[in-house]
Model the fold of this input.
Amino acid sequence: MVLNKLNPVADSYHSNAISVLEKSILIALETYSNVHRGSGHFSMVTNHLYDQAKDIALEYMGLNKTKFTIIFCTARNASGIINQLVPESFQMVSSQDIGLQLGVTALAVQKKKLAKVSPVQTGGGTARLMSKEWVIWAKSSDKFEAGTPAIINIIAFAKALQMIQSSGNDSFEKPDLEKKSAHEILYLDELEEFSGYKLLEELRETQIGRGVQVPTQEGTQSFINFDNSASTPTFIPIFNAFSQAWCQTEQVKQEIIREVKSICAKTLDAPPNGYDVIFTSNATEAINLAAESFSSEFADDIEPVVLNTLLEHSSNELPWRLIPCCSLIRLSVNDEGFVNLNELETLLKTYNQDKRYGNKRIKLVAISGASNVLGVCQKVSEISTIVHQFGARLLVDAAQLIAHRKVNMEECAIDYLAFSAHKVYAPFGCGVLVARKDLLKFSEKDLELIQSSGEENAGGIAALGKSLILLNRIGMELIEAEEQSLTRKILNGMAHIIGLDIYGIKNPESPEFSNKVGVIPFTLKNKMAPQVGKELALLGGIGVRTGCHCAHIAVKHFLRVGPRLEKFQKLIVTLFSKLSLPGVVRVSLGIENSKADVERFIQVLGLIADKPKNSSKKEVQQRIRDFVRASAVRVYK
Done:
């Protein structure tokens, strides 16, 4: 850690440091989105803030950004990286070093040394392009930041480093905060008298960033977030839980951790006597932990096989692919995105019962509960019955499921389940791995490090607990009904737009429509996906996501990318390191969205489809750049 000289005004500033920092976090949340590949105003702001955070961390450590790069990670992941480095090639500083429980470590590594380092986790943005056989890894720090990083916590950390530079090292060491119990932080709020639809209405009014005006070609308009599959916004009661928890005493922190584990267990119907709950940084880390544990289990006479599907997010693909001496095979899917249960049974029977492949046995089936590309929910209960009939285990990547559907782990006999808080309206860097008792095979020392690394982020854990409490009080059945109504409306509207192709379930009258969450991927004839995303932002202030969505195999499958074109894409991406492949446009809904949002989206999409080419005005693009810079200045000023 790099120390800084005390500033003479530190004493007068000290008592207000937490308050100032929380105001900056609130400002960052007003325009929060996921980093990388988003097309809307909010994504541009968050990307800008995230990039600045890296520069601020390097400046704090007194390092030259032409020679060093920053990796933001957890304490455990940082240790895995520095074990591959010589001491003089890196420096680091963590949020704990400055008295904040954010679960963030900034690791600065010499760029020339980083090229020889292997990532300790894979998935998410660690790969630029994938096929079934090969991977082109991301460049620089992206390769080491698996999954969605704790973006808001990282921005808060960077702001805190700025404040320390101007006000002294002890700015956050003894925060003068009101002491609260875990029960007060998690269960008490101004909306506690409400439940059901009334609570949903009242909660929407507290959305941080609701009604933010953004520049468009039609003047300023309220921003519409249709990028909930990438990450969700948050609400005042959830932010309050975060801000009340992150500087509490160790005793209160432990109370919060225990209670949120209980909340997760109740939400997932995973009884504490049958399941372990482990906090991580995100769902990607949770699945990597499951893979790490799984890899250490089997004797030399068994060759383990993992079975997943063509639809998987890279976070539920790459960790299994890279296990030594383990094979990965994939189930096909139909045009709507569902696996063939007969094929599943046949494969399990062939490997595990008939033993036609020598010592190879399918030991694990790892599937997405809901696809981040198509939004289809696999029939987990039926899959589980078949999986366990042939002696295998079932892992469910529930990152896209938890915020939209009720999950019952015990009834469905799910052995492992992973999800991220940032997709459940609590974007403060917390993930969860729930595993059946005795399945996680770590040494006592490793398990202690895993737990302490994940539990360092007390605020993020509290925010997740609060979010789950609110969703349960609204009722998952109600949330499902609201979402299905909006999805039906958006699909019916899109059906009238000429030249538009929807992938997966496109007809609300499909018998499988009830098994779809509000995720709609599409393309427009004669328009590249990034262009459509850009025009949605320019014309309507609408944020979506474009590209391959960290599910390259799935997107290429539905776009009918054959072997020759796939080889050509590999060549192009290899030669042009900054080039991104077009992919599809993805609209994804959340509890904050309304019928008015859908209507504006359909109207703007119709205008884009009718336009022969991008005719957006340069002055609008300049106003958007000014908006992005002004938003960042408000956070880091």
About this structure: The two ends are 24 Å apart (CA to CA).
